[in-house]
Amino acid sequence: MVNVDVAASLLHDTVGNEPTVVATAPGRVNLIGEHTDYNDGFVLPMAIPFGTAVAARPRADRRVTAMSERFGRTAFDLDTAPTSTQGWGRYLHGMAWALAEHGIDVGGFDATVVSDIPGSSLSSSAALEMSIGTALCALADTPLPPAVLARLGQRVEHEVIGVPVGIMDQLISAAGVAGSASLIDCRSLEIRPVALPHSARVVVLDTGTRRGLVDSEYASRRSACERVAAAIGVPALRDASLADLERVDVDATDRRRARHVITENQRTLDAAACAEAGDVVDLGRLMDASHESLHEDFEVTGPAPDAAVRLARQVDGCLGARMTGAGFAGAAVALVERDAAEAFVATMAMQYEAPPEQPSTETPAFHVVWPVRGAHVVQRTA
Ligand code: GLA
Question: Shortest CA distance to 224 belongs to which of 268, 164, 265, 288?
């Protein structure tokens, strides 16, 4: 759990004052439903007990100064374009801009940011956006519904950061439910809490790897999906069936991309039903099948997540394992029998070896996680 007191005391050290607001937002792990969100499909993520905390205090002018424990200082003027801010501060500037565009009264502020979200593919960017958004809404005395805040975070990704992400990461970080994963319909944004079966545990397999070029690969996958939807004549692949796909004349690679999305949507709905029925064996099988489809058809796994998944499946008690998030590097997720979870984590830590073609830049780490609540204000003084 991110230590919110650190954010507050860091602000005190940096600007010599107590925060007016401290807010926090979690990272996420996606259990199944990968690369389906921007196809208006279904996802089954959960917020995890790793997050980002923001401590903030208003200023009398239009200036923002901020300090991140991990990434250092940033400063900008609210009357400049958010794209003129470099580094991590662009997320902060982007959220301030998007909130102002939405009509929220955003003035200058000092802030500090701390995070304990490990590695990549656990949505540290979305947690940063949602924690800042929650803090700035609290400073302005105008809380926003989670889905609205999530849309603003997505707008920042599209228009300020330049990545055409879907809505999953921001929405689960904003709206996560303690104790439950969330089945999200990414077209209507309807969220159904899905309690995790008591007989299993979720384990994050963080391979300690990151890959560049993910953004352009991500955008090209999204375009492929849109081309096939247009060829079939539907608004999004959510509306297409495998029979529709067979009928159209599309590029062979595009066809495999679409096949992943269409089958993954069904697997996600089936997985939610399995979880609700307590059927952890079939839930694990669906996770395995998702990974195969992401490997063969969507081609977004990477050597490190593949290696973690392969090893996990050989360890006692593993019910299923798959990559999680955008892919190419980063984390995987395993479903493990409850009583085997502790030994599973110890064995993974002992036996995981990074493949030579994708060495770890940070120490690989394995965590049993449970679903936590989404972004919220932790502390507030008048
Ligand atoms: C990233 C994006 C999400 C989603 C996943 C893949 O995490 O931010 O919107 O598309 O990749 O499922």
Answer: 164
Cα dihedral value 239, 243, 245, 249, nearest 10: -140
Q: Is 168 in the pocket of ligand 1 (CB under 6 A)?
A: yes
pLDDT at 3: 80
| pLDDT at position 94 over 90 | yes
Which amino acid is located at 269 in the chain?
A: L
| Ramachandran sector of residue 276 (left: φ over 0; alpha: ψ -120 to 50; beta: rest) | alpha
Residue 37 Cα: closest atom of ligand 1: 10
Q: What is the pLDDT of residue 15?
A: 85
pLDDT tens sequence across 273-325: 999 999 999 999 999 999 999 999 999 999 999 999 999 999 999 999 999 99
Give me the numbers of helices (H) and strands (E) for the chain, helices first please.
11, 13
Does the annotation mark 169 as catalytic? yes
Q: Which pTM does this prediction carry?
A: 0.97
Q: Looking up tokens 């030579």, which residue turns up? A: 356
Q: What angle, rounded to 10 degrees, do the helices at 214-232 and 252-277 form?
A: 90
